[in-house]
Design a protein that fits this description.
The complex is a heterodimer of chains A (about 550) and B (about 525). With about 550 residues, chain A is mainly beta. Chain A contains six helices and 41 strands. Chain B is flat, with a radius of gyration of 28 Å. The chains are: A mainly beta (about 550), B mainly alpha (about 525).
């Protein structure tokens, strides 16, 4: 009887495994969203202060962070905002950055003033992570004229520690991200700079005869190098840009994404550059980086022409265990896909993945590569709009667009936006993603220039099972950033950077299809240790502590 | 695709009009003459053939005339009718020897002269068309069709001054014909361009060249570039009239009215010109553009004289185009606007104008081809494909149309569909390097890098931004040729650096600054 029971159990396990990741015998569950910002109490409007002079900074803001700032288990939302031009000051509450506390059941409350995070200057992007390993996620806000490091005090308030920490301002910063580049257990800060600019820049671009002034092309702006701040572990940071070998790489940075693309145990850095080749900084593991974008095949699309690279995701889309790269850009440029060949270089898979044809008529900024229907394949959500509000007068493109969702069907994508609910046509910018209601389906929050932000509740039906892994580092940084997690064929790295100038600090999500029990979860911590969990129940948020 | 070819293709009077206008009376006279010498059967056939010709049934007419000519080889009239039928049916090559045979017997036969010229033009042989058309115009100077065809032929062979002369006479005789004003404007514009090229050949650093280039850049709304070139001219010729005025125009366009006033004052303050030393300048400044245009026909005309010739020609071109603009909407007016929009980097406007031209001449394959090309440039790739494919039904061997279709499909991320068109483009014109470049990329995209390499390598001469070298390096990498991949990537980086440095230099120089 025991033998028969064991055979039955094994048969059951076989069935479970068979149902695990394969949805090839039937079409994937339908991805659908419902927009709930207003009923949720989110009234944020991205005030970019558009001017007749068309200052370039007006068209670039919009970063969003998702973080559980108060540790109650529910992801909260932080929106960055613009400022008055030319003063670049937040002269009115309408320009405040805003923190919304998730109170459960799709209700959010504006706690900006209580938290002390209204911000200063013209903000662009945000990066959330626990940089001091005290258990509370902190915030770095990148801005045109003012960067701000907010230390989370753990009591619902933040303290501006920018000066104390040694973080500088001055060059226009668009985005940032947290990584432990030297694996010392402390999160370091990578700041992406765009270009040299000041409010006095007043070049006329456009068609004066038709009275159409437009935002100037990036070619008129001199680029700037990224900045790398090394975390000393005492609350202060050291600018190691020169020492790390980064100072000579001048770009017009828009976003950053991290992943260990060559599996050597050290996080590497991909930076999108506007109208220039992208950078791929390979971490040598000795505190320095080498720029390998061209030889690695990630600098440009296969036609060799620079495009308006915007946001980036550095994740494994084809479940071969190696992180790939997705980039958003403008209409007629396509959204490039660089597939990791596993040998240190990448192939342009834009056409092969079908993203080329699907993205041709779209322009996008924010993006998120997440498994929205929990079928085991990461899908792509893009926050869409062109950069030029008069684009229709110059080319066959539109300015405002609806967002799009592309379902990943075993490494090839299909546009499933029609019927997904993503209808509002706006000048979308940043996007961040989280499971706001704990149902295992990834939701989205999107900003839009001059209009209300969107909160997208994922209401997809027939979705598969899921698991969210929240890491707690002990030897490594507390967030576990840089750790690599494998479940079956799927691989994800813990990161809090997402898409365009945005951040999501709440865990690593896996869709697991028909599995109710995950046979094995492998976690490779940045320090190198391998932790294995077996027979893990799905449909839960699992906190995993690094063994001492 | 050049507008010059489009211009001469819009021949004067559709063939049917020419048949009715002057051929019919000739046919009638010749038929009578034939009738006197024929049997009743041949006479009947002759009349039948004449009816077929007049009603447009050319192939049937050819069949009967061929029999008649065989039966009555001495009847020149029948030979002429046969040639006319062949010409009207588009069998130009076959018609030519027959026209020539008629002209041997009747050298002044105007229908034969005009139609022979037209046949050569249809075959793209403008040089061969000149002689018979000149004779036709000499026989009947008032024949607008003949003179119009001759003017077009002169344009095609580069005899722009002669073309302008014919167009001046034509516009006097027929002032409401937009084709003539367009032709006149284009001939003057070509004279200006030729003068500019002669200056460039004589002295590439000439301040007169800089001044002319400045004006062109201004017309294209490239104000910074125009500013730069005006200052280059001013460095060497501070007293050259029009430069300060040109700078003032730039200042006004870029919102610097105070600086504009300053330059206008500088222009006014220039000393009067010594007309004994600078006669062309004086003629131009007093509005005697035609006189300024006439240059002593010496190979060594001074750069100054060429400069004023170019200025005069430009002014006359503007006047002709202005007159065109005063006429009711026409294909030529929309074509002109489309070309201006293209030069001013307004592809959407160009598309609108080509569409407007097509509404007036919906079945003109050349206009359809221009529209397809403009759609490609404007980035409306789906519309470009649709237009190119539709037009290819009328012009299947068109190299450029096949390229437009193929390149558009490639942009639409449909490389497999693009390949047949790109191959057809190269088949029709093996020197169409853009087609080779696009074919290489299409093959690479389909993982056929081994095949792609030859096309990418062939197109490298086009590479001004390094992208083709990049593509070739990727293809070498994909086929395992690491050494060539490295070398080609190094070449890409060198080109990129050079291109960047050049752009930076231009950007530095082309800043609009206060008057010096």
């Amino acid at each position: 009887m025991k033998f028969l029971a064991a055979m039955g159990a094994l048969a059951g396990l076989a069935l479970l495994l068979a149902g695990a990741f394969s949805t090839g015998n039937a079409s994937a569950p339908v991805i659908r969203f419902r927009e709930v910002a207003a009923e949720a109490g989110i009234s944020f409007v991205l005030e970019n202060h558009p001017t007749p002079e068309k200052h370039l900074i007006e068209t670039i803001p919009g970063g969003i962070a998702v973080l559980d700032y108060d540790g109650d288990g529910r992801p909260d939302i932080y929106f960055t905002n613009g400022a008055d031009i030319p003063s670049l000051s937040k002269t009115s509450p309408k320009y405040w950055n805003r923190l919304y506390r998730n109170e459960g059941n799709w209700k959010f409350r504006d706690v900006t003033q209580d938290a002390g995070v209204a911000g200063q200057g013209y903000s662009m992007g945000v990066a959330a992570a626990d940089y001091d390993n005290d258990g509370h996620p902190d915030l770095f806000v990148a801005g045109v004229n003012r960067n701000t490091l907010y230390h989370n005090l753990g009591n619902g308030r933040f303290e501006d520690v920018t000066a104390k920490a040694g973080i500088k301002s001055g060059e226009w910063a668009v985005a940032a991200g947290w990584l432990d580049y030297d694996r010392d257990g402390w999160l370091d800060l990578w700041v992406v700079h765009y270009a040299k600019w000041s409010p006095s820049f007043d070049r006329y671009c456009g068609d004066a005869t038709r009275g159409l002034r437009i935002y100037c092309h990036p070619k008129y702006f001199e680029g700037v190098a990224n900045t790398l701040y090394r975390n000393r572990g005492d609350g202060t940071f050291e600018d190691v840009t020169d020492r790390a070998g980064l100072a000579g790489f001048i770009g017009r940075g828009m976003s950053v994404a991290f992943a260990d693309y060559d599996d050597d145990g050290f996080p590497d850095v991909f930076v999108t550059n506007d109208s220039m080749p992208n950078f791929l900084f390979h971490n040598r593991g000795n505190g320095t980086f080498e720029e390998v974008g061209l030889p690695a095949g990630t600098a440009l699309r296969d036609d060799g022409k620079p495009i308006s690279n915007m946001g980036a995701e550095f994740k494994d889309y084809d479940n071969d265990g190696s992180p790939d790269i997705f980039v958003t850009a403008l209409a007629s440029q396509t959204f490039p896909v660089f597939r990791n060949r596993g040998n240190g270089n990448f192939a342009d898979a834009t056409y092969a993945s079908r993203m080329g044809a699907l993205s041709l008529k779209h322009s996008a900024w924010g993006l998120g590569l997440f498994d929205f229907n929990n079928d085991g394949w990461k899908d792509l959500f893009t926050a869409n709009s062109h950069v030029n509000d008069h684009v229709a007068a110059f080319e066959a493109a539109v300015y405002k667009e609806a967002n799009t969702i592309f379902a990943n069907e075993h490494g090839r994508f299909r546009d499933v936006s029609a019927g997904s609910g993503l209808e509002p046509v706006k000048a979308h910018r940043g996007a961040a993603f989280a499971d706001f209601d704990g149902d295992g389906r990834i939701d989205a929050v999107v900003s839009a220039l001059g209009e209300s932000a969107e909160l997208w509740q994922n209401v997809s039906t027939g979705t598969g099972h899921w698991i969210i892994v929240r890491l707690r580092g002990t030897k490594d940084n507390r967030d576990g950033i840089g750790a690599r997690i494998r479940i079956g064929d799927q691989m994800n790295e813990m990161t809090t950077t997402v898409g365009y100038a945005s951040s999501a600090a709440w865990g690593v999500h896996f869709g697991v299809g028909g599995l109710t029990i995950v046979p094995k979860i492998e976690i490779r911590w940045p320090h190198g240790g391998l932790q294995t969990l077996t027979d893990v129940r799905t449909d839960q948020l699992l906190t995993v502590r690094q063994p001492n | 695709m050049t507008s010059g070819r489009l211009q001469s293709a819009r021949q004067f009077g559709p063939k049917l009009t020419r048949i009715r206008g002057f051929v019919l009376p000739a046919l009638t006279a010749l038929s009578l003459a034939v009738g006197l010498a024929q049997t009743s059967d041949l006479a009947q056939k002759s009349e039948q053939a004449r009816q077929l010709l007049v009603t447009g049934k050319y192939e049937a007419a050819i069949a009967i005339y061929t029999q008649l000519v065989r039966a009555l080889p001495q009847e020149t009239g029948l030979l002429l009718n046969l040639a006319l039928a062949q010409h009207m049916a588009g069998h130009e090559a076959e018609s030519i020897p027959n026209f020539e045979a008629v002209l041997k017997v009747q050298p002044g036969a105007e229908p034969a002269l005009i139609s022979l010229g037209a046949a050569h033009l249809a075959l793209g042989q403008p040089r061969q068309a000149l002689a018979p058309l000149k004779r036709a115009v000499a026989v009947e100077p008032g024949n607008l069709d003949a003179r119009g065809l001759l003017a077009g032929a002169c344009m095609d062979v580069g005899s722009f001054e002669e073309a302008a002369d014919h167009y001046r006479r034509l516009t006097s005789a027929s002032p409401d014909d937009p084709r003539l004003w367009y032709g006149l404007g284009m001939s003057y514009q070509s004279i200006a361009t030729t003068a500019l090229k002669r200056i460039q050949e004589a002295d590439a650093q000439s301040p007169y060249l800089a001044a002319l280039v400045a004006r062109t850049r201004f017309q294209r709304r490239q104000y910074r570039s125009a500013f730069f070139f005006y200052h280059e001219a001013l460095k060497q010729l501070p007293g050259l009239p029009g430069i300060h005025g040109g700078l003032a125009e730039i200042y006004r366009k870029t919102g610097h009215s105070e600086w504009a006033a300053e330059e206008e004052a500088n222009e006014q303050a220039l000393p009067p010109t010594d007309c004994s030393v600078h006669p062309s300048e004086c003629q131009f400044r007093t509005g005697k553009d035609l006189d300024a245009l006439k240059l002593p026909r010496t190979p060594k005309a001074s750069t100054e004289a060429l400069y004023w010739q170019a200025k005069a020609a430009n002014e006359l071109a503007l006047q002709a185009f202005f007159r065109l603009g005063q006429l009711p909407p026409s294909v030529e007016l929309h074509q002109l606007r489309a070309e201006i929009a293209r030069d001013q980097n307004q592809p959407m406007e160009a598309v609108t104008e080509w569409r407007a031209a097509l509404e007036l001449a919906p079945n003109d394959p050349r206009l359809q081809e221009q529209l397809a090309a403009s759609l490609l440039i404007a980035g409306d790739y789906r519309a470009a494909v649709d237009q190119a494919v539709a037009t290819l039904k009328a012009v299947p061997a068109g190299a450029e149309l096949n390229f437009v279709a193929g390149d558009s499909l490639l942009h639409l991320e449909e490389p497999e569909k693009s390949i047949p068109y790109l191959r057809a483009a190269l088949g029709a014109d093996p020197k169409l390097l853009p087609a080779a470049a696009s074919l290489g990329l299409a093959l690479s995209r389909l993982d056929r890098s081994t095949e792609a390499i030859q096309y990418l390598a062939k197109a490298l001469d086009l590479d001004d931004d390094g992208s083709l070298h990049y593509q070739l390096a990727q293809a070498y990498q994909a086929t395992g040729n690491a050494q060539k991949a490295r070398a080609t990537m190094a070449a890409y980086q060198a080109l990129l650096k050079k291109s960047r440095e050049l752009k930076e230099e231009v950007a530095r120089e082309a800043q609009i600054e206060p008057p010096r």
